[in-house]
Design a protein that fits this description.
The chain is about 35% helix and about 20% strand. GO terms for molecular function: metal ion binding.
């Protein structure tokens, strides 16, 4: 547990440094460009019968919607160069997995990049290792990512690109975490700002009432 807390403290320092770095490269007046599109939990959303997708994990293996069947899943869309919201959200996911204990074995935690230009499998693998290596990183060609984005009804938009710093752009994106059942259907969304304790408590409540065949 001490090692885990030290790792989280390190992640917090890295996230803070990344935020300062991002603000340093932004032109005057763009300090608010890091704001993301925040989607709170939406219990009225009607989930489609099937959310099909084909992606690639950080080991270069194909990962599809069929690989999720039979397990609960936490799915977060973001990118590794995100200065604030993504590291905070992935830290929350990692802490929720820790708090779930053995119940975490019943779910898959998935991080999907919306920035395939910069987020190669190697970059994502190193990034995820700062949080929890149980998290599955997914990337792929932009059309494949857009298909998964549409399947889970999230949004993202590439920010303005400075020709002098073409790799320093930001990406606005949905910040909620989708919670999906063993049948592949959306159960709910955890809004940005929910604590790991709140998320773990809600997950435990749901899975305790669910029998997986």
């Amino acid at each position: 547990m001490a090692d885990y807390r030290r790792r989280l403290a390190t992640v917090g320092l890295i996230a803070g440094a990344a935020l300062l770095a991002a603000m340093a490269v932004l032109p005057a007046g763009r300090a608010h460009a890091a704001t993301v599109v925040v989607r709170e939990a939406d219990k009225t959303e009607k989930a489609p019968e099937r959310r099909a997708f084909v992606m690639t994990d950080t080991q270069g293996r194909m990962f599809t919607d069929q690989d999720m069947l039979g397990s609960f899943a936490l799915i977060y869309f973001g990118y590794t160069s995100c200065p604030d919201v993504c590291p905070t959200s992935l830290q929350t996911v990692a802490m929720a997995l820790e708090e779930l204990g053995d119940d975490a074995d019943r779910l898959k935690a998935i991080f999907v990049t919306v920035d395939p230009e910069r987020d190669t499998p190697d970059v994502m693998r190193q990034y995820i290792s700062m949080f929890d290596e149980r998290i599955i990183g997914l990337t792929g060609p932009k059309p494949f990512i857009d298909s998964m984005v549409a399947a889970y009804n999230v949004k993202y938009e590439i920010g303005e690109i400075d020709p002098e710093r073409p790799k320093d752009y930001l990406v606005d994106h949905s910040a909620s975490i989708a919670f999906v059942g063993p049948d592949g259907k959306l159960i709910t969304r955890f809004g940005y700002g929910m604590t790991s304790e709140q998320i773990a408590e809600r997950i435990r409540e749901i899975i305790s009432k669910t029998t997986v065949n």
